[in-house]
Structure to design on (369 residues):
């Protein structure tokens, strides 16, 4: 896979960088922490983020994982907290590979146009990182299904027009599309540590039609696993973009901050720390390239292995770069006056999203047995 930018990719990333620099400044970003801002999301859709991974037959661009990596690096530089991963990557990937043509036509086309936000709910209380549903159940009825249960930590779940929900159907895992406002659906929205949003969704005899069934059995498991692996790779790309931006701002800070009559950047020990930050960032980016290549693997085990290796490496690099930046900023690094703290929170949170390091180490072990 060629990771050198084409002319189209260069134009897209340049436009995104200008947009992010203008619309995702610290004051504007913090002003939007209360929920999904339609204007901010719309500006991303206009540049093609919403339709990036949507197949061309449904009005999208049908871009490759390599373009996804380039785009999400730029989004990471601005700490974009809109549902670019949960909706534009994970949900779109899942729907794009399913066999329910009616749902694909409706939701993928709407997503490409910016008329829909999607989310995926698969995590349950007490079942951290497990992808198979346990307590959420679907009961077959004459005209469809009745859904009961609860999903936690649904990324941007409150803002979603449609939520893809995993549930047990006759003892097998299944995936359903549940529309916002469905009778019996309630949610509790809350902020996350890094400035994003998540929700707990509760289903009390939620009635859904037969056409809302996306997949069941092994196909449902494969679709969810694929979507999560795509999401992890996009998350790694955003972390790499955030590490690059934070390292650049730290270098500029050390060049302007003086002590003993000279810039802090002149001190060799600080130069070494900056060098370590650059090395860690490049190692994380290299592994993200490997994960991006892995997304094209036909064998799920090979794909999962490369994605988990990247997540482990990027999570470690992100924590190191974030902590180093705070330390190099000294007392200013822990104040609200500078956005280094915002980057630190986002980079620390990377390890917790979509499976922490312990989970991915265990997955690697299971895949090698």
């Amino acid at each position: 896979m060629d990771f050198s930018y084409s002319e189209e990719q260069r134009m897209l990333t340049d436009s995104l960088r200008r947009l992010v620099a203008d619309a995702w400044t610290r004051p504007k970003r913090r002003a939007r922490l209360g929920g999904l801002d339609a204007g901010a999301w719309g500006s991303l859709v206009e540049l093609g983020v919403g339709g990036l991974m949507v197949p061309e037959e449904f009005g999208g661009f049908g871009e490759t994982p390599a373009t996804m990596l380039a785009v999400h690096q730029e989004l990471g530089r601005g700490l974009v907290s809109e549902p670019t991963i949960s909706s534009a990557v994970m949900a779109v990937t899942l729907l794009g590979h399913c066999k329910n043509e009616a749902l694909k036509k409706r939701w993928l086309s709407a997503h490409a146009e910016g008329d829909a936000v999607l989310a995926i709910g698969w995590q349950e209380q007490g079942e951290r990182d497990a992808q198979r549903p346990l307590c959420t159940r679907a009961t077959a009825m004459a005209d469809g299904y009745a859904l009961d249960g609860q999903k936690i930590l649904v990324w941007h779940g409150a803002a979603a027009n449609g939520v893809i929900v995993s549930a047990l159907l006759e003892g097998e895992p299944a995936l359903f599309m549940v529309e916002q406002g469905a009778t019996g659906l309630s949610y509790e929205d809350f902020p996350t540590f890094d400035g994003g949003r998540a929700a707990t969704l509760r289903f009390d005899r939620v009635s859904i039609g037969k056409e809302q069934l996306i997949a069941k059995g092994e196909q449902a498991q494969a679709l969810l696993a694929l979507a999560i692996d795509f999401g992890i790779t996009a998350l790694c790309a955003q972390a790499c973009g955030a590490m690059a931006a934070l390292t650049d701002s730290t270098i500029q800070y050390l060049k302007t901050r003086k002590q003993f009559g000279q810039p802090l950047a002149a001190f060799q020990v600080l130069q070494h720390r900056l060098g370590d930050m650059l090395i860690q960032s490049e190692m994380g980016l290299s592994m993200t390239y490997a994960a991006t290549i892995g997304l094209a693997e036909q064998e799920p085990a090979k794909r999962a292995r490369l994605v988990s290796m990247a997540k482990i490496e990027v999570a470690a690099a992100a924590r190191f770069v974030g902590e180093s930046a705070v330390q190099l900023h000294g007392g200013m690094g822990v104040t609200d006056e500078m956005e280094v703290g915002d980057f630190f929170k986002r980079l620390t949170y990377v390890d917790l999203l979509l499976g922490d390091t312990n989970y991915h180490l265990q997955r690697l072990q299971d895949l090698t047995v």
